[in-house]
Amino acid sequence: MPELDLTASSLDLTRAICDIPSVSGDEATLADAIAAAVGVHPHLEVYRDGDTVVARTSLGRAQRVVIAGHIDTVPINANLPVRDIENDGEHYLWGRGTVDMKAGVAVQLKLAAELAAPRFDITWMWYDHEEVDADLNGLTRLARTRPDLFAGDFAILGEPSNGTVEGGCNGNLRAIVRTHGVRAHSARAWIGANAIHAAAPVLGRLAEYRPRDVAVDGLVYREGLNAVRILGGVAGNVIPDLCEVEVNFRFAPSRTPEEAEDHVRAVFDGFDVDVVDLAPGARPGLDAPVAQDFLAAVGGEPRPKYGWTDVARFSAMGVPAVNYGPGDPHLAHHDEERVAVAQIDDVERGLRAWLTSS
Amino acid sequence: MPELDLTASSLDLTRAICDIPSVSGDEATLADAIAAAVGVHPHLEVYRDGDTVVARTSLGRAQRVVIAGHIDTVPINANLPVRDIENDGEHYLWGRGTVDMKAGVAVQLKLAAELAAPRFDITWMWYDHEEVDADLNGLTRLARTRPDLFAGDFAILGEPSNGTVEGGCNGNLRAIVRTHGVRAHSARAWIGANAIHAAAPVLGRLAEYRPRDVAVDGLVYREGLNAVRILGGVAGNVIPDLCEVEVNFRFAPSRTPEEAEDHVRAVFDGFDVDVVDLAPGARPGLDAPVAQDFLAAVGGEPRPKYGWTDVARFSAMGVPAVNYGPGDPHLAHHDEERVAVAQIDDVERGLRAWLTSS
Fold first, then answer.
1. Between chains, do B307 and A185 touch, taking CB under 8 Å as contact?
2. CB-based contact (8 Å) between B120 and chain A?
3. Which structural domains are found in chain B, ordered by start?
């Protein structure tokens, strides 16, 4: 088993854990190394569930914060082992997982070992299967088996956010809009009814749709309604009897999932709409005193998170949660995935400052 | 090898050749049986090319007619062997190939054997691979190796036409209309450009399109412009960068292929249009004296053929051609394919009357 030196720099720790491949489903080696490395610290009580490792302090502090990061990555595409590169005079660590999100995990591991007496009690969570179906997500499993471990006054996900605080997240709905027709030979089209032609107003409404910008607790969320897939047709000489348009609605956290569904059904009024996936958004939760204190400690202007992240899970459990981690989210999953080393240092400094200030 | 008795009734001959399965690519057994059965007749000179059998008289007549039928079928779907059924008091032969087009071939085989001294010289053609790509069609091959065999003053294809004369055929064009965009994560759709939304006007123009009815040489052809396939999308969380709409234009034989292509490009002006298949139509050719004589002999009102058939091939070679065969074309390729026995007899009588009148 590879050994992790948690006294190394966050950069070196990032290198070490990126070079232990851990594509979703294959996290065991890394989870073993993490459990072993944090297990030697007497101030941490370690709990293992599958390839999720939880390490908690129990110092009797007035408040508890949860700090979490997933340890899996999307598939490797000839972008491991990591290497140091320079781009426009900036030093980057290049390779799969550097952005999403092992640099964030490295900072967390280092601070978990170092901070024997933080100002809050801390529940550290490093979990598996974030990059795949929500059913498989380590936090989904843990919320079922040990919901008590999610207790806290505030939560931080180390998802890449360019080292700034990104509050809350948009909700996410996927639906299939279907149009129907009657099959016929295309040489005698008048006998049938063309389901693809019937989808013209569906695409028309999408093309004309003007998404809202919505202010929620002081942050502005951009919504979006988009076709992500369209499929219709039987054969080159057949009038098609079915056309399916899959639409994706990213909605501001001020809408409930039910309101989001009502909105999509209203947009496609008159059509057959089948909602196939619906995840709530998360309000930024930046008005809580502990959140304000966090913002003051790490500095910078908070921003909205557009993509869905596990902060929504904490939010749904009543724990205000934000994203805060090194790395440009636009480079997540990219073949040229790379994290600016300065951002790793910034996040380490920001978290340490907040967790140790008095 | 199964033996065919060409003195049997057309109905019994239809039974016999339907029960020799000959799905496209698997016509050898039937072609062997046909070549052997016509080969015993001294008035016929037989030529074999792959699984195409040509049998010709050479009586020195002033005119020559070509009478042709394909011997392959679409795949069997638990609808062989054939059986006799009754439907609303009408006697049908049920099973794969009965309509498309072995009843027509049976009539042709019977008359080829019987008519040792017809009023015209006759070139009979029974060919393979009509139900698949035109590249594989036995007539495509024969036109390359023995174009002289297509010489004639008139041609009859025994394609199912309900025992009436169907003149000419519509042309057939297929094209891909593509719209382009820019990929992006669907949580940040404003960074990308949605190619499926860009296809809204393509479907809009199709939905609004009003096809023409066009009179050609006294027959009215209905045109049609239809989407037959649409495809777009990368993943459930990605703004798609490409959408493809496959359109099928069935055009009256008064348009040349070039004019048909110009028309489709005009309809989709401003879009990327890629013509992938283009077959000319065939004018009905019913004004030729030999055609008028044929119409008078078989009786009934001629009608336009909407679907593309091999008559267009003869038409392009300067030989006026019509479809004339037993069977309802709507039942071709149908799992309940069945031919009205009365239509087999009618077509046999009609052809014999014309070929033997003086």
1. yes
2. no
3. 10-169+282-356 (3.40.630.10), 171-279 (3.30.70.360)
